[in-house]
Write a structure and sequence with these properties.
The protein is 25% helix and 41% strand. A hairpin with a 1-residue loop joins strand 2 and strand 3. It is globular. It is of the alpha+beta class. Strands 1-2-3-4-5 form a five-stranded antiparallel sheet, covered by helices on one side.
Length: 140
């Protein structure tokens, strides 16, 4: 009887520890390479390009981190680096054929965004986004 009690206690402890990362409403790490994270990141870059006062478009350089929270849909907190391209806005917001600028004075920005994504409705809502300049070595 004692052995069964210890085994049951051990199983309960293991299950409760594993469940901590799966608590509904809790934040957990997300795969930055997943289709959903890539989709919301592309949306955030597009919104930055539409709303910024820069004359050139910016393109995704790298993902720094991604977290997710299951709600009515999924909230994402993502951190990524964007870089200035050679393409001017001029009403064209497409990043196709827009190489990154090169040289010493090329602007790189680290963006932190919070996004709600409801996949079954194909609805993405940008809740908050801040982008700040970073040095060249910080983009690695």
């Amino acid at each position: 009887m004692e052995v069964r009690g210890v085994a049951l206690l051990t199983v309960c402890a293991m299950l409760s520890l594993g469940a901590l990362s799966l608590v509904p409403g809790g934040w957990s790490e997300a795969d930055p390479n997943s289709d959903w994270v890539q989709k919301v990141t592309a949306y955030c870059v597009q919104r930055y390009n539409m709303e910024s006062n820069d004359v050139t478009l910016y393109s995704l350089l790298s993902m720094k981190s991604a977290q997710q929270q299951v709600v009515a849909g999924v909230n994402y907190k993502i951190v990524f680096i964007i870089g200035q391209t050679t393409c001017r806005k001029n009403g064209n917001m497409s990043l196709t054929n827009c190489p990154l600028k090169t040289g010493e004075n090329v602007k790189r920005l680290q963006c932190e965004s919070k996004v709600n994504y409801v996949p079954w409705e194909e609805n993405i809502t940008l809740q908050k986004q801040t982008c700040n300049p970073v040095s060249e070595h910080a983009t690695q």
